[in-house]
Amino acid sequence: MSAKKETFGKTIGVVVGVCLVCSIIVAGSAVGLRELQQTNAALDKKTNILTAAGLLQTGMSKADIAETYTGKVEERYVDLDTGKYVEMPDGYDMYKAAKDPSMSVQVENSNVGFQRRATVASVYVVKNESGDINRIILPVHGSGLWDLMFGFLAIDADGNTIQELIYYQHKETPGLGGEIQNPSWQAMWNGKQLYKDGNVAIQVKKQAGTENPYAVDALSGATLTSNGVQNTLSYWAGENGFGPYLKKRTWRS
Fold first, then answer.
1. What 3 state SS string does the chain have?
2. What is the average per-residue pLDDT within 176-196?
3. Is the pLDDT at 33 greater than 60, yes or no?
């Protein structure tokens, strides 16, 4: 009995020791790779913004992406209630701010899929070769079938004409809702009109056709994902989202 107890005790000790060593290795790796992860996340964000801006080219290096972004894209911050630019500290994150009651507001009577939104949102103004602003890129998010979907909506400097709708993070079903990342579907958004007579008019619906300036075809077999895109755009282009900013053409001042 004594030998068996001793063997069992040694086994437990070895298991605990191995677990501790593994925990230390995993924790050390996480800390050591944190800077690399942050760098890659920043690069991915710039890449998606350049895609929405129509500036991403095949074969661009990391240095090319950084240079193009720095030279032609400027991040600004908008008070969503007033539509006016405000100053925010470096590193401000509207998605983290949405979790802080002192920096966010409750979202009420909305089917957009989240409970709070930041009072101040990022926008990205894109300049052409002459230095004039020709696109405004708005970060948008809302619920899909399985979870929130995150994207960038690119608007012409007229504040109404859609240039791009790029989704970069989602959990939609491949081949169905996942088609929100299909270049063919994304291309349908170019030239569509966001507003009509001052009201949000853009629609995602079945058999929208190419001639309707206010509608894009819904995704086949993905009704809930299509509804999610509709709800997302209706919210963020509306009065509780970027509506005041777009209607005031703040970037012209």
1. CHHHHHHHHHHHHHHHHHHHHHHHHHHHHHHHHHHHHHHHHHHHHHHHHHHHHCCCCCCCCHHHHHHHHHHHEEEEEEECCCCEEECCCCCCCHHHHCCCHHHEEECCCCCCCCCEEECEEEEEEEECCCCCEEEEEEEEEEECCCCEEEEEEEEECCCCEEEEEEEEECCCCCCCHHHHHCHHHHHCCCCCECEECCEECCEEECCCCCCCCCEEECCCCCHHHHHHHHHHHHHHCCCCCCHHHHHHCHHHC
2. 95
3. no
Mean residue pLDDT of the chain comes to 89
Q: What is the pTM of this model?
A: 0.83
Domain ranges of the chain: 74-252
pLDDT confidence tier of residue 123, bands split at 50, 70 and 90: very high
